[in-house]
Design a protein that fits this description.
It is built from four helices and ten strands; from the N terminus they run E-E-E-E-E-E-H-E-H-E-H-E-E-H. It is α+β, with helices and mostly antiparallel strands and 219 residues long.
């Protein structure tokens, strides 16, 4: 079982045991996160299919602008004792901002707390440069449906992560249920309803959504 440990320093991990790829599943029993006819996997071999571009874990941290926030279009539902927040970033707000230490620290805290509850949350993809997205897009069907066009991927913002776990599919896993209940506590929302593994750090939007559904505080 893969678990996370706390760190006091920004950490951009690179593990040879996690080689992400976009593949066409031969068996749904082996899928990690199935969307239509493509599946996002993390395995020792990388799976069979279209190899992903190299992941930039130690990307230089640029002079960052404020973390992009969705502003509107956020949906929120009560889930267990928590809230499941969802909302996709508008294409016009996508910028190549480099890796975000703040978002990465929030992810590490969430991974550590999940691990304490017996849940494994594995970061498959984090920040992805436009150059890396260009390679990945060329290796896809180029429709833009499953692989965003260069300059349009939320991964460019440095605050979006693809999350996996040790069981599959992710959409039916305990890990996904845990995230739907607790991810908002760390400032994360699920960007796209059809991608259970795709989560973005947007503490401003999450806080506003939770405040809206909870209503005014009683005095």
């Amino acid at each position: 079982m893969i678990t996370a440990v706390r760190s006091t320093q920004p950490l951009f991990r690179s593990s040879p045991a996690l080689v992400p790829a976009l593949t066409r599943p031969e068996s749904h029993a082996d899928e990690t996160a199935f969307t239509g006819d493509l599946v996002l996997t993390a395995s020792l071999s990388g799976g069979v299919g279209i190899p992903a571009a190299p992941v930039t874990r130690h990307a230089p941290v640029k002079a960052r602008r404020p973390i992009p926030t969705i502003g509107s279009g956020v949906t929120i539902k009560r889930y267990g004792h928590g809230f499941h927040v969802m909302g996709q970033l508008a294409p016009g707000l996508v910028r190549d901002l480099g890796a975000s230490p703040e978002a990465n620290q929030a992810l590490l805290r969430m991974q550590a707390d999940a691990a304490a509850a017996g849940i494994s949350l594995i970061e498959v993809y984090g920040y992805r440069s436009i150059a890396e997205q260009r390679v990945l897009f060329r290796q896809s069907d180029r429709s833009g449906r499953w692989v965003a066009r260069p300059g349009k991927s939320e991964h460019h913002t440095g605050v979006t992560y693809d999350i996996n776990t040790t069981s599959s599919p992710f959409s039916g896993s305990i890990a996904y249920r845990w995230m739907k209940q607790h991810a908002c506590e760390y400032g994360f929302l699920q960007s796209m309803s059809w991608e259970s593994w795709h989560w973005r750090y947007d503490p401003v939007a999450v806080k506003a959504a939770v405040k809206r559904i909870q209503g005014p505080k009683k005095r």
